[in-house]
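User: Hey, my collaborator sent me this sequence without any context and asked if I could get a structure. I don't really work with proteins. Can you help?
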Amino acid sequence: MIKTLKETVVFNSIDEKTIKNILEKTKYEIKKYSPNESIAFRGDEVKGLYIILKGTLITEMLTEEGNVIKIEELVPSDVIASAFIFGKKNSFPVDLSVKDEAEILFVERKEFLKLLFSEEKILENFLNEISNKTQLLTNKIWNSFNNKTIKKKFCDYVKKNQKNNLFSIQNLGALAEFFGVERPSLSRVLSELVKDEKLERIGRNKYKILDIEFFEI
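Assistant: No problem. I've predicted the 3D structure and written it out in structure-token form, which is a compact way to encode the shape of the chain:
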């Protein structure tokens, strides 16, 4: 556990002996979860610090149309919802579930606050974590308003989600909604990429990348 914590942003640059001493005087709990178990839903209270020790978690959002959009996967050493531990609205921004057997270290909010006051390096690490996430969010907002074409948005999606030059689209309507565009417009872009031999349709909702340079992979 200590080796995993050493890799987290919270305990960054803190040696294992010091981490062990900190844990000995800190009240914490190890929460265990089974595969496919739900940990939290969007709107549930974030009650403190959550650090993944084992397993993979999936974050998802449910659209107004009832479609589920996968946001990202969280792995050991990741801190969950760090920006929502403090502030006026302490609630999870996404649904959180377990992909495989998982363990999470939990420190209640007041206990974590005591830890921040007593350990200057942890306070600095946590402030850096919040600042970095705020800056990342600002960049994402800027990019979304930066007149990206549908084709550019789709190419970025392919680049991030491809594996061995293969990718799939589970729900074209949900993806279009995620991009903030109409489904027919996205479908037209996809058809053009296939026609221009940038992509090859190899099965239902499955595609192969033919032009790697075009997608900047």
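In plain terms: The mean pLDDT is 90. You can pass these tokens on to your collaborator as they are.
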